[in-house]
Design brief:
Blueprint (H helix, E strand, L loop, with lengths): L2 H16 L16 H17 L4 E4 L5 E5 L10 E6 L14 E3 L7 E4 L2 E3 L15 E3 L8 H19 L8 E6 L20 E4 L7 E6 L1 E10 L15 H11 L15 E9 L3 E10 L2 H21 L4 E10 L3 H6 L2 H13 L4 E5 L4 H9 L5 E2 L3 E2 L7 E3 H19 L1
Parallel strand pairs: 3-8, 3-9, 10-15
Antiparallel strand pairs: 1-2, 2-8, 4-7, 5-6, 7-18, 10-16, 11-13, 11-14, 12-13, 17-18
């Protein structure tokens, strides 16, 4: 397949996938959380089976799609998996997406609608794609490149593998998961049904960036019980749970918040609050690249709860702590070939790959922890995620596909 045909294949797939409404819904009790995700999963299942003629395609009852492409050589090679998620964020409207294709970007700002402009000032990477194809929003929804760009790229890789016998590769597994955006993507993943030795999520952002680390993440749900009295007769008797929750929020270091940190700095984030004077709740998210530092943050919340109980006699504070995901760098360090082979593939293609960290997590975070395999995260060529200013560059999407194909070839060598 020539480069023009590859570009066209990627673009057509991407436009087809973003047209499906797949916003996840954290309030839903079903899995996947929305019917639109089933629609896209069934579309992918059909394309894998009917268009690409892949024999081994299985749909899990909880909306996890797995496909296997057999090796084209008899030599020993690691089983490599490529993974993407079908849902889109609910941070801004993610349904009824109306993408606009700019076939030859002329440079300068891009007007999305009467009141929304994608500016070069805020998007300096635009200058890298002058004269090339971009896909942007209409300024009312996100685009869905997170992670439908990754899906389109994985399907383009699969298309190349099944139609080009000159590509020699080992056994390949493809995984498509739901509800990644609401941290449920791997809740029902059938780890006992897979055989991958290396797994790559295709859920990154800027071209040439390979995420080799992510946060360790935990959540603390704080429940404060106070004592309620009529406000006119509360002196000496009332213990206001809302006041105590406010005191806990104010005690968290502002210098260690999401809005005050970047790079490798972790944070405390009070994210949700509610209740009454008698009982109030607070959800706190904790993040750090170092697991010991994350544990320190958990201990700090525990100590703070004890102090507040002492300061407000009659109150009681209970904490429900849960680890959400772990830094996938730990497994990559055990099997460094997974990252080294990827960077060697980039070098051979003339790509200037860079190791980056992701201030969040991926389904690969769960995969690394549960299945004990390395799970680096490959760029998709998408920018401004979870925003009406989201855009993708087709050339970067093509580079992601070329990188994955060369990776699969080098894994055999």
């Amino acid at each position: 397949m020539d480069l023009h045909s590859l570009d066209r294949d990627i673009l057509q797939r991407f436009l087809r996938y973003v047209a499906v409404d797949t916003m996840s819904d954290s309030s839903s009790l079903s899995h996947p959380s929305t019917e639109g995700q089933w629609e896209l999963l069934r579309l992918l299942e059909k394309e894998l089976k009917e268009d690409l003629k892949i024999v081994d395609v299985q749909m899990h009852e909880k909306g996890i799609l797995i496909a296997r492409i057999p090796a084209t050589c008899s030599c020993t090679a690691p089983v490599i998996a490529l993974m993407a998620h079908v849902d889109t964020s609910s941070a801004v409207m993610g349904n009824q997406v109306k993408p606009r294709v700019i076939e030859s970007y002329e440079g300068g700002d891009i007007r999305l609608n009467a009141s929304c402009i994608l500016t070069k000032k805020d998007n300096p990477e635009l200058c890298l794609y002058t004269g090339q194809t971009l896909v942007v929003t209409d300024g009312t929804t996100l685009l869905g490149g997170d992670d439908k760009a990754g899906i389109a790229e994985i399907l383009a890789v699969a298309n190349l593998l099944v139609h080009d016998p000159s590509i020699i590769h080992g056994p390949i597994e493809l995984y498509f998961t739901p509800d990644e955006e609401i941290d449920r993507g791997m809740n029902y993943f059938p780890y006992d049904k897979i055989a991958c030795d290396w797994c790559y999520t295709v859920d990154g952002e800027k071209r040439d960036c390979i995420d080799t680390e992510c946060f360790n993440a935990a959540a603390v749900q704080v429940t404060v019980k106070g004592i309620s009295y009529h406000l006119g007769a509360g002196r000496g008797r009332m213990v206001n749970a809302v006041t105590i929750v406010g005191a806990m929020i104010n005690a968290l270091p502002q210098a260690e918040s999401p809005e005050a940190t970047d790079g490798r700095y972790g944070y405390y984030c009070p994210l949700k609050i509610g209740g009454t004077a008698e009982q109030a709740q607070l959800d706190i998210f904790l993040r750090d690249f170092d697991l010991q530092q994350l544990d320190r943050r958990i201990a700090a919340i525990q100590d703070l709860a004890k102090v507040l109980e002492a300061m407000y006699p009659g109150s009681s504070i209970s904490l429900d702590t849960a680890y959400q995901y772990y830094n996938f760098a730990e497994e990559s360090r055990k099997v460094p070939q997974a990252v080294k082979t990827l960077f060697k593939a980039g070098e051979q293609l003339g790509l200037d790959l860079k190791e980056t960290v992701i201030r969040g997590g991926t389904d690969g975070s769960w995969m690394a922890q549960a299945h004990h395999v390395p799970c680096p995260n490959i760029f998709t060529g998408g920018y401004n995620r979870h925003s009406v200013y989201e855009w993708v560059a087709l050339r970067a999407m093509e580079d992601s596909v070329r990188l994955m194909v060369r990776l699969l070839e080098l894994a055999v060598e």
